[in-house]
């Protein structure tokens, strides 16, 4: 490939995107096996190297100027770029990463956005030998049943979001696992306390009834799985009322959260109507005479962010189809967590 002969062509644009991605990895280099994966995350499609006459991705990459394939300390092939002409690209990206709150806008025909957040070189490397020692695995545990039993009861009240016990399904579980560092098992049922992946309202109600300890403040977001399963909307509203009643009987102050849009929900008129009815039933509890609850209208907040959220949402809708546990994008997760922090903090400061 000679760049002078391919100005403003598709190959030229893809080449520039690759340069930008490689710059993020600095001296570490980008693993050759991850090149197509990183490109797909940014552009939504694989590198069309066959269109440029190459039989493989590697055979096309070696023809690109300023990009070199070398081997790292672990004998893996990585891509690096070396050129005086391209140094300004690296400097520009590094400056943008240091500017907090500033989002760089890169124009191209491949929907290139948010690539500045995708540096993953560290966790791809295996840990050095001898960097950890599991010294206590085979040691006999101290026989303190009372202490262990108390700990297990307290552990059941996790996860806690700003002094509120979270009760719900995949949304809260996603935040607990990916943002707050709570333990969620990789195999088997994905669960943290009373947040369980794929949980329905009726199942959460049963778990609350069986729970020995409930925190004095709880935040509840449930019903997503019921919508996916096509459960009767009247049954959903009834089960929600029973859940709130049970929590009130356990002397818990309840905050409800409406269900935001998710790429996992089918884009159909019937689903949208049922979601609207259910969210309105949640909102009604903000002025209920006997079961009054605090309410966070997360659906409305996401709707207000639609212009910014739309691109990330559309991209994730393609990825999430084959991922059972992915319910919203990185940008959606950021909105969700920021909203929880703001609203729950205000409640605490107001004495709720």
Characterization of this structure:
With 352 residues, the chain is α/β, with parallel strands linked by helices. It has 2 domains: 3-119, Nucleotidyltransferase, domain 5, CATH 3.30.420; 146-349, 3-Layer(aba) Sandwich (Rossmann fold), CATH 3.40.50.1110. The chain contains 14 helices and 10 strands. The protein has a 5-stranded mixed sheet, sandwiched between helices. It has a 3-stranded antiparallel sheet with strand order 1-3-2. Strands 6-7 form a two-stranded antiparallel sheet. 30% of the residues are buried. The model is unreliable at 1-8 and 103-124 (pLDDT under 50). This is HTH OST-type domain-containing protein. It comes from Callosobruchus maculatus. Residues 10-84 form the HTH OST-type domain.
- How many individual helices? 14
Q: What is the CATH architecture assignment of the largest domain?
A: 3-Layer(aba) Sandwich
Span between N and C termini?
Answer: 65 Å
CATH superfamily of the largest domain: SGNH hydrolase
**Largest sheet, spatial ordering of strands:** 4-5-8-9-10
What is the CATH C level class of the largest domain, in words?
Answer: Alpha Beta
Spans of at least 5 consecutive residues with low confidence: 1-8, 103-124
Sheet with the most strands? 5 strands, mixed
Helix share, percent: 40-55%
| Estimated radius of gyration | 25 Å
Domain module tally: 2
- The gross shape turns out to be elongated
Number of strands: 10
Protein name: HTH OST-type domain-containing protein
InterPro entries: LOTUS-like, OSK, OST-HTH/LOTUS_dom, SGNH_hydro_sf
Domain HTH OST-type: 10-84
């Amino acid at each position: 490939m000679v760049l002078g002969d391919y100005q403003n062509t598709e190959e030229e644009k893809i080449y520039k995107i690759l340069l930008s991605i490689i710059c993020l990895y600095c001296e570490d280099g980008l693993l050759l096996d991850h090149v197509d994966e990183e490109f797909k995350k940014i552009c939504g499609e694989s590198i069309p190297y066959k269109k440029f006459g190459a039989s493989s991705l590697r055979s096309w990459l070696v023809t690109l100027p300023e990009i070199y394939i070398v081997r790292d300390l672990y004998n893996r092939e990585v891509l690096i770029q070396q050129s005086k002409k391209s140094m300004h690209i690296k400097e520009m990206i590094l400056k943008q990463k240091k500017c907090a709150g500033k989002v760089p806008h890169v124009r191209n025909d491949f929907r290139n956005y948010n690539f500045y957040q995708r540096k993953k070189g560290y966790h791809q490397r295996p840990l050095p030998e001898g960097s950890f020692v599991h010294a206590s695995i085979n040691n006999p545990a101290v026989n303190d049943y009372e202490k262990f039993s108390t700990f297990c009861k307290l552990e059941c009240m996790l996860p806690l979001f700003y002094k509120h016990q979270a009760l719900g399904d995949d949304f809260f579980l996603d935040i607990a696992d990916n943002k707050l560092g709570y333990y969620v098992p990789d195999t088997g049922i994905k669960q943290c306390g009373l947040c369980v992946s794929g949980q329905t309202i009726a199942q959460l109600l049963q778990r609350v009834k069986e729970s020995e300890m409930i925190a004095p403040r709880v935040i509840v977001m449930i019903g997503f799985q019921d919508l996916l399963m096509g459960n009767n909307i009247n049954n959903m509203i009834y089960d929600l009322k029973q859940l709130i009643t049970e929590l009130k009987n356990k002397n818990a102050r309840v905050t409800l959260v409406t269900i935001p849009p998710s790429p996992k929900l089918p884009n159909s008129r019937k689903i949208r109507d049922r979601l609207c009815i259910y969210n309105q039933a949640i909102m009604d509890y903000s002025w209920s005479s006997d079961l009054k609850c605090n309410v966070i209208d997360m659906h409305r907040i996401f709707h207000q962010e639609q212009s910014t959220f739309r691109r990330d949402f559309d991209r994730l809708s393609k990825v999430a189809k084959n991922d059972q546990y992915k319910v919203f994008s990185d940008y959606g997760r950021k909105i969700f967590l920021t909203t929880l922090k703001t609203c729950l903090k205000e409640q605490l400061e107001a004495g709720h």
